[in-house]
Specification:
heterodimer, A: 4-stranded antiparallel beta sheet, 12 strands, B: mainly alpha, MetI-like fold, 0% strand
Chain lengths: 259, 216
């Protein structure tokens, strides 16, 4: 096994009731790599991110983060289910930004960001507040620290959600259709923020998106996904400009026509 | 009518004790029951279901009579009427309370659970910092209803020799035969007590409030 990989999916199967969502998925992502996953709705793209974030458990196969299995450990030479403590430690390496922001409505903006550092990392409140203020500044919302999430626009909410995920300093960041709930102009601003972020950090990043221009700008690699399988895997030029598979061409035609 | 007041107020004090005690029992019982109901362990879920259905599905008065007249036959001691009333009315209210809590907790959107997990919150942090604070605004109004209902149901305690408002009102009625005054006074006292309880719940509600807008 290549232990230099940031993320490895080995023979991952996932189904809900009788619907197979991921079938024998193998995927390796290098440290610092930016991978964009595209594909039709219901193709299992988001499930990849949800599995990595441990929001779902695979039916079979292994997910490794930095060479270490998320769901299993070895005890006496045998592969056994990992303890909740192990899973939490692995989960701590990953952060996620959601399509619908999922900010905590009962906490002010600043508290949304400080909550995890204080309660999960045990960071002193003053330090957490300093970090949150810096992050808010970075996402251009320094003046909204005391606002309630309900008082923010969609784009502002998503910026706070990005700052909140960054506060735990994850090694891997997952972005699940983060602009799908935003109007195009606002979406552009949020994507620009993510582009800047990608340039400034060495985090491994996975994106599920329908924004092809953004994919082209940010991706080291694009995966086209359909019915639980990777159909095409290559650089943005290879996949977006010169797709080899008819299914990819059909999908891209539809997407470009729509935009 | 003034000479009735001291006895009625003594009754009010007992009604207050029974109601307050029953509310405490109901709060504990409903919290335990809902934790068991939402547990993934069937061994915990089922006893909670049985408790809820049993207490919701039978008359509070019969529960009280049973606990007062039948239970002491199998118990090695006889609990006082007031304790019996507090426990029975509390368990009865708790069954309804558990369902109120369950509905409110389940209405917290899945995205909130996802966010809490993605931020690596422990199960306890998730419950106490994410789920419950958002469930509270949904819990309090129906809980206020339940508690006021329990205040009025506490009148049943008068039927098992607890000297509450209803019990004392009956004694006064029998000795004075002034139905209108006695029961009128009882109505007013219950009403004032309900107002105080409702006011207290509204105060709690206001303290728990946060600006809820469109989906966050």
């Amino acid at each position: 096994m290549n232990h230099k990989a940031s993320i490895e999916f080995v023979n991952i199967h996932k189904s809900y009731q009788r619907t197979v969502v991921l079938e024998n998925l193998n995927l390796t992502v290098a440290p610092g790599e930016h991978v964009v996953i595209i594909g039709p709705s219901g193709s299992g793209k988001s499930t990849i991110l949800r599995l990595l974030m441990t929001l779902e458990k695979p039916d079979s196969g292994e997910i490794l983060i930095e060479g270490e299995s998320v769901w299993h450990t070895t005890r006496d030479g045998r592969n056994v289910d990992a303890s909740p403590a192990h899973i939490r430690r692995m989960r701590g390496k990953v952060g996620m930004v959601f399509q619908h922001f999922n900010l905590f409505p009962h906490l002010r903006v600043l508290q949304n960001i400080t909550e995890a550092p204080i309660r999960v990392m045990g960071m002193p409140r003053s330090q957490a507040v300093r970090r949150a203020t810096d992050l808010l500044d970075r996402v251009g919302l320094a003046d909204k620290a005391e606002a309630w999430p309900a008082e923010l626009s969609g784009g502002q909410k998503q910026r706070v959600a990005i700052a909140r995920a960054l506060a735990l300093q994850p090694r891997i960041m997952l972005f699940d259709e983060i602009t799908s709930a935003l109007d195009p102009e606002i979406a552009g601003q949020v994507l620009q923020l993510v582009l800047d972020l990608a340039k400034q950090t060495e985090m491994t990043m996975l994106f599920v998106t329908h924004q092809m221009r953004f994919a082209r700008q940010i991706a080291d690699r694009v995966l086209f996904f359909d019915r639980g399988r990777i159909i095409e895997n290559g650089t943005p030029e290879q996949v977006l400009d010169h797709p080899q598979q008819p299914r990819t061409r059909e999908f891209l035609n539809n997407v470009f026509q729509a935009s | 009518m003034l000479h009735m007041l001291p006895m009625m107020l003594r009754g009010a004090l007992v009604t207050g004790e029974v109601t307050a005690g029953a509310i405490v029992v109901a709060s504990v019982a409903s919290s335990c029951a809902v934790a068991m109901r939402l547990s993934t362990l069937t061994a915990l879920d089922w006893p909670a279901r049985v408790y809820i259905e049993l207490f919701r599905g039978t008359s509070a008065l019969i529960q009280l009579f049973w606990a007062f007249y039948a239970l002491p036959l199998v118990l090695p001691f006889r609990p006082s009427p007031i304790i019996t009333a507090i426990v029975v009315l509390g368990l009865n209210g708790g069954a309804y309370g558990a369902e109120i809590l369950r509905g409110a907790i389940l209405s917290v959107p899945r995205g909130q659970h996802d966010a809490a997990t993605a931020l690596n919150f422990s199960a306890t942090t998730k419950v106490f910092r994410v789920v419950l604070p958002q469930a509270w605004p949904l819990i309090l109004p129906p809980m206020a209803n339940l508690f006021i209902d329990m205040l009025k149901n506490s009148a049943l305690a008068g039927l098992v020799q607890v000297t509450d408002i209803t019990f004392n009102a009956q004694i006064l009625q029998e000795s004075t035969l002034r139905n209108a005054e006695v029961y009128g006074l009882a109505l007013v006292i219950y009403f004032i007590m309900a107002l105080v309880l409702a006011g207290f719940m509204r105060l709690l509600e206001r303290r728990m409030k946060f600006p809820v807008g469109a989906r966050i």
